[in-house]
Design brief:
- The protein is mainly α.
- Strands 1-2 form a two-stranded antiparallel sheet. The protein has a two-stranded antiparallel sheet with strand order 3-4. Strands 5-6 form a two-stranded antiparallel ribbon.
- Strand 3 and strand 4 form a beta hairpin.
- The longest helix is centred in the N-terminal third of the chain and has 21 residues.
- It starts with a helix and ends with a strand.
């Protein structure tokens, strides 16, 4: 976790710049640009209750602040309605209700934007302009408005472990990316073994890691199977590089060094498994221009004539010669899935994505145990999971309901995580109930990867190693000096620290540039509740403290924001709106917000 003093030193220029930009918008034109529309925006969706929900007696200690903190960890950000809902049904009630909701999917959203003939490339072979960002647009809409927030949040976490990126040939096929997004969304609460299989047969992964139309070896030409997927499946998706104990800590050999899991011979043997896969419904080498539209998003097919029938050796497993392709994949994935590294390897990264950047070994061990057993007992005694190894619902329950996650942090400055920039933006949109989350006409949301924006964009990491490495220790920082892993700090630098508050100020003021100015603007926040409190700076900050920082706002931060707000003399509703806008940006650039604890 990043300490408060460190972030105050780092963010001082951002505070000043955000203040200047926001206050500069206080004149007549700025006020009208940021005024909420006359039509009331839709309220935050309330999930429908599942059949036979697990009853939970409301614990006396469940406060609005605790509910807000839980939603900050488990969703794309709390709003007032969401906090009230959790207070009404309890943490367990919300969790079990979320497990029962149907998945909100992406592929059909993308296909609905295609021409009737299914054509998606122009004469130069580039995607039609309206389709390029279709999958990204669907992400923003679902993250901000979908009722199945826990599932969407889990899918986003999985997308940073089982990585594909549109910074590749996938940029030309938004339907392929959308289908992969659906794989992670539908599999978010299922079994990890099944998810691995769906990922393996996904056209998106096959294109990204180059095993699409991967062929068996040909001694006469010197051709050998592509090793890309075999390597990353082991190194990044399931096991890591060294043997781990149940607590995620590396095991050492007699020489005191970590024990390496595999060598190049293992990769070479495993690469043979992933030969013979190509688009379904056509021939193995059918040209791309001749593919039917559905081939781009349907699971891959196995063509055994191109599959290696040699004996395959890896990780102590042998697949007999002449084993067909689908069976070879099944045996290989079973062997990898049963490896004892998978539980702790996945557990630590899920904890990092939801709760804290440097989890204790005991926390990792408890989550890993839930993965291995496929069961987790909630505080009420109710069970989550199928009792099958790899149950992701049980694993996620262990992440969110572990004592380390739910107990007050107190003075433990090693606990917590830097909020991901994408989740900061979705939280803003949800907290202030934007009039629409339709990003199709929003120029800035087409790519927020720039350091002048968020420095991160969903499904657009710069490489298969994600936006940041799970073991990243930031040099020259207090977290680094303490030896703490802090993944998100890998994309926090002098540029992004300034770019983020500028980006948020543009949206807070309702000034995001549109592609087509003739269309009604989206992402206009409803600050009416905040503006109604703006005459009383203390009341406004109490409200925002609950909504954004779950009651953790410190006295010195509160004083800084109050002083800035008092610089704006309130003489009209426009002045009240500017106060609300400025307060929201300042709190969302405060260390108490940036570091989720």
């Amino acid at each position: 976790m990043v300490t408060t003093s460190f972030l105050f030193r780092t963010l001082t220029p951002a505070f000043i710049l955000a203040l200047l930009v926001a206050c500069g918008g206080g004149g007549g034109g700025g006020a009208s640009a940021g005024t909420p529309p006359t039509t009331p925006p839709p309220s935050e969706p309330t999930p429908a209750p599942p059949p036979e929900p697990i009853p939970e007696p409301l614990p006396e200690e469940l406060t609005a602040e605790a509910a807000s903190r839980f939603l900050s960890q488990a969703s794309f950000g709390p709003g007032s309605t969401g906090i009230e809902n959790v207070l009404a049904i309890g943490l367990e009630g919300w969790f079990t209700e979320q497990l029962a909701l149907s998945p909100s999917l992406h592929l059909q959203d993308v296909l609905n934007r295609f021409p009737a003939d299914g054509r998606f490339l122009d004469d130069q072979g580039n995607p039609l302009e309206d389709l390029v960002f279709a999958a990204s647009d669907s992400f923003w809409e679902k993250a901000i408005t979908a009722p199945d927030q826990l599932r969407q949040r889990m899918a986003f976490a999985l997308s940073q472990i089982l990585v594909v990126s549109s910074q590749s040939d996938l940029a030309r096929t938004p339907q392929t990316i959308a289908a992969y997004m659906d794989v992670l969304t539908t599999g978010a609460f299922e079994n990890f073994r099944e998810l691995l299989e769906d990922v393996t047969y996904s056209p998106a992964m096959a294109v990204y890691l180059t095993y699409l139309r991967n062929e068996k070896a040909d001694p006469s030409s010197g051709r050998v199977p592509d090793e890309n997927y075999a390597r990353e499946l082991l190194q990044l998706f399931t096991l890591g590089l060294v043997e781990l104990g149940p607590d995620g800590e590396p095991l050492t050999g007699n020489d005191g060094q970590p024990v390496e899991l595999f060598d190049n011979d293992d990769i070479t043997g495993l690469a043979k498994v992933f030969t013979g896969l190509s688009f379904s419904g056509v021939g193995f080498r059918t040209p791309l221009r001749a593919l039917p539209s559905e081939a781009y998003y349907q699971p891959l097919a196995m063509f055994d004539e191109f599959h290696s029938l040699e004996e395959k050796h890896f990780l102590g497993t042998t697949i007999a010669a002449n084993t067909d392709g689908n069976t070879s994949i099944e045996i290989a994935l079973d062997a990898i899935f049963e490896h004892p590294n998978v539980g702790p390897f996945l557990a630590r990264q899920l904890i990092q994505r939801f709760i804290t950047s440097d989890p204790t070994p005991s926390y990792v061990s408890r989550v890993s145990q839930a993965f291995d057993s496929g069961l987790f007992s909630l505080p009420s005694g109710a069970s989550v999971g199928s009792a099958q190894r790899g149950d992701l619902a049980a694993t996620l329950a262990a992440v969110l309901f572990d004592d380390d996650a739910r107990q007050p942090v107190g003075d433990d400055v090693t606990f917590g995580k830097l909020r991901e920039p994408v989740i900061r933006f979705t939280h803003w949109a949800r907290a202030f109930q934007v009039n629409s989350a339709d990003a199709s006409n929003d120029r800035l949301l087409r790519d927020t990867s720039s350091s002048e924006a968020l420095g991160q964009h969903p499904y657009r990491s710069p490489s298969v190693f994600n936006f940041y490495r799970p073991g990243y220790i930031a040099p020259g920082t207090e977290t680094g000096a303490a030896g703490l892993t802090a993944p998100e700090l890998q994309i926090a630098n002098a540029s992004t620290v300034i770019g983020y508050p500028n980006f948020m100020t543009i949206y807070a003021l309702g000034r995001a540039p549109q592609v087509d100015r003739n269309r009604a603007p989206a992402f206009i926040a409803d600050y009416s509740e905040e503006a109604a409190l703006a005459d009383d700076a203390d009341a406004l900050l109490d409200h925002l403290d609950l909504l954004l920082t779950h009651g953790t706002l410190q006295a010195d931060t509160r004083t800084r924001v109050q002083e800035a707000l008092l610089e704006i003399e309130v003489q009209s509703d426009a002045d009240r709106l500017i106060r609300a806008q400025l307060a929201s940006v300042m709190l969302m650039t405060a260390p108490e917000y940036l570091v989720l604890r």
